[in-house]
Structures are given as C-alpha cells and as structure tokens.
Amino acid sequence: VAKQSGKNAYHLFDMAHDEAIKTQHESQERMRSALIQNELVLYYQPKVNMRTGQVTGAEALIRWAHPQHGLLAPAAFLPTIEDLPVSIEVGEWVIASALAQMSAWQAMGLHLPVSVNISAYQLQQSRFAIRLNELLATYADVHPSWIQLEVLETSALEDMGKVGQVMRDCHAMGVHFALDDFGTGYSSLTYLKRLPASTLKIDQSFVRDMLDDPGDLAIVNGVVGLARSFSREVIAEGVETCLHGEKLLSIGCELAQGYGIARPMPAHQIPEWVANWHQEARWSA
Ligand code: C2E
Ligand code: MG
Ligand code: MG
Ligand code: MG
Fold it and tell me: Which UniProt keywords apply (predicted)?
C-alpha cells in the first residue's frame, strides 16, 4: 500500500510539474504576442530637483495595453515571465524604446535623461553589455550618460561577481546606474563601495511613512548620509505631499519623484508637462 501511494504521490508531483511548465510556456507565448502586436508601452514619470525646481529626468515604466483587460501595471504581468527567456526580449524592447523616445525628444529640443528598470535576470546575462552597446550604437545621437539603469538593490547583490562585472562593463560605456528600492535589501557597505552605482533611490515605503514613523525617518536619514559619504546622488521615490518634500529637503535630499510631483504619463504628454512645470521651487526648506 505504501509503495502504491508513493507512486501516486510521484505521479501527482509529475502532473503539477507539467502544469507549471505549461503555464510558463503560455505566459511566454502571451508576452511574445504582446511584443509582436505592439501592446507594450512605456509611461514616463518626471524626476525633479525640489530646491532648484529643475526637471532632472524621467523614469520609464512599462505598461501592457491589453486588448481585453485594459492598461496593466507591471506587477500584473512581469512576475509571470520572471527568469524566462522572453523577459530578455521585453527588457531589450524597453531599452530600445526608451532610446528611441529620447532621440525623438532630443530632435524637438528636449534633452531629458531617462532611467530604465533592469531585472536581476537581465543583468546576469553576460550578453547584456554587448546588446546594450549595440542599442546605443543604433541610437548614436543619444549620449550613453543620459541613460540610467535602475537595478534593485537586492538583485545587484545577488550574484555580486557576475552582476558587478556586467555593471562595470556598462559603466565603462558611459551608462549610469541607480540602486532602486534602496534600504529594502541587506546592503553591505562593502558592496556599495564596489558597485559603480552613481545614485541611491530611497524606497517609497520609507518615504511614505517617515513623517509618522521614527524608524522610517532614521532609514531615510541614513541613506541620505550614506549617499553623501560615498559621494553618490540620492533620490526619494513616492513623494506624495508637500510635507514629504519639505522634510526631505530639510534632511538634504533634493531629488524627488512621486505622485505629489507627477504621476507616470504617456510619452507624448511629457514635453508639455516639462514646459508647464514651474521653474521656481515648490517647497521651501
Ligand atoms: P520602481 O522602479 O520602484 O518604480 C516606482 C513605482 O512606484 C512605479 O510603479 C510608480 O508608478 C510608483 N510610484 C511613483 N510615485 C509614487 C507615489 O508617489 N506613490 C505611490 N504609491 N507609488 C508611486 P509601477 O509603474 O507600477 O512599477 C512597479 C515596479 O515594476 C517598478 O518599481 C519596477 O521595479 C518594475 N518595473 C516597471 N517597469 C519596468 C520595466 O520596464 N522593466 C522591469 N524589469 N521592471 C519594471
Ligand atoms: Mg525604478
Ligand atoms: Mg523603486
Ligand atoms: Mg519598487
């Protein structure tokens, strides 16, 4: 009997495994078809310097204009293709599309640095730097230093040897890096010293709660101090209110991104938004 049930259990596991493979395969095919049908779009969220009022750049954020389900946020579809080969194709589409957009903006006189999110899986591919170099050559009018790659703090530290090398190769081409959602991982200061990341992005969870939670305020303060000690830039994400902006300024964090400044928007709205953004500072320190 024992032998019998063992066999059944094995059979069940086998079926669950097949089922998982099938689901993965379906996710891949759906995403490939979305790429072919041109259903993926990049939204852009402005970044500003709260002290000077200057618009310092924009972050490209992927959306899926799904024919049945409407505009899908990344959380609704990126996890289903995580670590699958198709995620590399999507990642390359994101970079190519951001470069094409920057080139188009430049042609109309708008010089805007753009940051693009990169997954750990992308960064673990040795071909990543080569492909990036090819894409930069295709859009030769865009200077590499205007592109910033946002890497999750956690993924940058996952495979330090490999990822560090890929980052250094890209950095040598002039591309900048930011460590995204900084503070949510277990960043060792040694890693920070070794990684060629010019910017630390304070995670929005800390920014959001820093006015009520002394622990979160301490983290925000800590990251700002860390950035200063390592001569890195620091930007706060999730800046939703003036109070948040003022607090950040008083701590010494001038760069910000968040709904309180602008929500992510389609690319065509960016030039008008930039033109209408008041040059004078909105927040007084
Ligand atoms: P992230 O890179 O940390 O991007 C910031 C997220 O916070 C965006 O969500 C943005 O819309 C949202 N956000 C901005 N300001 C505020 C605010 O004031 N309050 C609140 N509550 N949220 C704010 P989104 O667009 O849904 O993206 C979620 C995550 O998906 C991103 O987090 C990033 O990790 C990932 N992602 C987005 N686009 C791409 C992409 O092209 N490739 C990869 N690999 N990941 C991407
Ligand atoms: Mg990001
Ligand atoms: Mg983030
Ligand atoms: Mg995030």
Answer: Coiled coil, Membrane, Transmembrane, Transmembrane helix
